[in-house]
Amino acid sequence: MFEHIQVAPADPILGLNDAYRNETNPNKINLGVGVYKDEAGATPILKSVKQAEERLVKNEKTKSYLSIEGPEAYRDAVQALLFGADHEIIAKQRARTAQSPGGTGALRIAAEFIKKHLPGATVWVSNPTWANHQSVFQSVGLEVGSYAYYDATTKSLDFEAMLASLSQVPEGDVVLFHGCCHNPTGIDPTTEQWAQLAKLCSKQGFLPLFDFAYQGFGSGLEEDATGLRIFLNQVQEMLIANSFSKNFGLYNERVGALTVVCETSDHADAAFSQVKRCIRANYSNPPAHGSAVVSEILNDPQLRSLWEMELQAMRTRIHEMRSLFVSTLRAKGVAQDFSFISKQQGMFSFSGLTPDQVAQLRSEFGIYIVGSGRISVAGMTKDNMEPLCDAIAKVLAD
Ligand code: PLP
Ligand code: TYF
Fold first, then answer.
1. CATH: 3.40.640.10, 2.60.40.1120, 3.40.50.10810, 2.40.128.50. Which one for 65-299?
2. Rounded to an integer, what distance in angstroms lies between the CA atom of residue 106 and that of residue 341?
3. Any ligand 1 atom below 6 A from CB of 256
4. Which residues contact 363 (CB under 8 A, 6 or more apart)?
5. I need a surface site. Which of 44, 141, 264, 388 has the fewest CB within 10 A?
6. Is the pTM of this model over 0.90?
7. What is stated as this protein's family in its record (predicted)?
8. From ligand 2's centre to the CA of 397, what distance in Å?
9. Fold for domain 14-45+315-397?
10. 330 burial class (0-12, 13-18, 19+ CB within 10 angstroms)?
11. Does ligand 1 come within 6 angstroms of the Cβ of 130?
């Protein structure tokens, strides 16, 4: 029965992570997968998370099933984080949120919901985008198209081309936006550009799907929601897939949410009943631990302020590494201008390194970078910066 099955290609990012684990070079450096590292190169559990977990272990009374959509305290906290606690959407109950297994789980439920309830819709993703987007949408049979985003020559957003592509998207299709900290380029629209995109969305009549996996990693929790909130002032309907993998460091707990925003509370009830139906047919109901940790932290002022400080420390360290990377390369006499890297947001940057240079960094120096040249700045530390920049200077000179 199984003898005809072909080996599937490895995930370009997670596969690289597996290869890194087996790398024998003692000086190896991992700038592949988007996992935050601290100054010591570790991915520790946040103090706020540990404290919340201690409380949970002490107070937890049952392991009985959660509801399909997850606990109310969690869902309310997610909405407050996305919209701001005083938003009209919350007062008018125009949104419904379901807990999901990570941001990926939220995208997958969104995909099934789109496939069933927006028949014929194509999903448009930026070029480039996170490697998994195409697979998630295609795996439910959706057509995926791409819109212009990145200009490799100027290493910036090609906003005119982006507007031109999105002007071709027909009414009823779905456009995926990265809420902040665009993966893989690190380049986000400005506030003015978000406003133009929102206007275009409303004119064209496409549905925005926000993938919001890095809230708090760019400029701050509120600041990073700017694009999302500008859209919400302009359009009545939206899907939002958010993840707490990065901003709570809860990668392996698989915690995120899918939020549906509708024109009215009645529409939201109907749409949400269908979201719940998709969930039921997938994994029935979500795991408890991750969401319990997140809602314990978000709903407790002391834990919340500790978490916000820890998030700020992660964000600040990444920005410091960006500047240090640029100045260290310069100090090593690298002629190319890498200053664009210090202007970008979030964990990632497109370095402009070619596939050959990426391969050489891996084989000669044990430095792992995604083939596209995307580097995870979050994997840089003060300790690995010198050998990293020496190696990059070497491959650029060859
Ligand atoms: N969306 C983007 C843009 C991401 O970079 C990630 C990274 O993991 C995800 C979604 C998925 O998040 P999660 O790990 O919570 O499934
Ligand atoms: O882009 C990244 O590195 C992270 C982690 O299939 C990730 O978003 C990468 C690939 C994947 C799942 C998560």
1. 3.40.640.10
2. 30
3. yes
4. none
5. 141
6. yes
7. Belongs to the class-I pyridoxal-phosphate-dependent aminotransferase family.
8. 31
9. Aspartate Aminotransferase, domain 1 (3.90.1150)
10. middle
11. yes
Which are the catalytic amino acids?
A: 130, 211, 246
34 close to ligand 2 (CB < 6 Angstrom)? yes
Domain segments of the chain as ranges: 14-45+315-397, 65-299
Gap between the Cα atoms of 294 and 78, Å rounded: 9
The alpha carbon of 175 and the centre of ligand 1 are apart by a number of angstroms equal to: 17
CA of 33 to the centre of ligand 2 (A): 6
Nearest CA to ligand 2 atom 13: 14
pLDDT along the chain (398 residues), means of 10: 93 89 94 94 96 97 97 98 97 98 98 98 98 96 98 95 98 98 97 98 98 98 98 97 98 98 98 98 97 98 98 97 96 93 94 94 96 94 96 93
Q: 276 CA distance to ligand 2 centroid (A)?
A: 26
211 close to ligand 1 (CB < 6 Angstrom): yes
Model-level ipTM above the cut of 0.85: yes
Q: What does the alpha-carbon distance between residue 34 and residue 376 come to, in Å, rounded to a whole number? A: 6
